[in-house]
Write a structure and sequence with these properties.
CATH topology: Chromosomal Replication Initiator Protein Dnaa, Chain: A
Strand content: under 5%
Distance between the termini: 18 Å
Order of helices and strands: HHHHHH
CATH class: Mainly Alpha
């Protein structure tokens, strides 16, 4: 992933909503137990982007962003175990390295997440 520099806090719920829209699903679909390939793939992408884009709570004492959201925190947001999140992140990362078209799609969704968040918060995207 080339352009995942974080300029603002993005919540896991916002990521779930944007990924669901990108895959023509609902957020409820992502959180369901449905194992259909298109739902599972979307869920894995959402978990991957949650790890890449979402941050832990607050900021460090120097004002810097804190580390990425933890696997257990992401798992709780999806109703899954942290090992399911680890698997999703590893498999999507491998697929992005092996398939440039898929990687561009994931990058595009990440970009869309940032734009959706900015618009929802009344900011103009950079």
């Amino acid at each position: 992933m080339s352009d995942l520099a974080i300029r603002r806090f993005i919540s896991i719920a916002e990521i779930q909503q944007a990924v669901a829209a990108a895959f023509s699903l609902t957020r409820a679909d992502l959180l369901s137990r449905n194992r259909e390939q298109r739902v599972a793939c979307a869920r894995h992408v959402a978990m991957y982007l949650s790890r890449e884009l979402a941050r832990g709570e607050g900021r460090g004492s120097d004002g810097a962003l804190v580390p990425p959201a933890s696997y257990p925190r992401i798992g709780m947001a999806f109703g899954r175990d942290h090992t399911s999140v680890m698997h999703a992140c590893n498999s999507i990362g491998r697929r992005c390295r092996a398939d440039q078209r898929f990687a561009r799609m994931v990058d595009g969704i990440a970009h869309d997440v940032r734009i959706r968040v900015d618009h929802a918060r009344g900011k103009v995207a950079a």
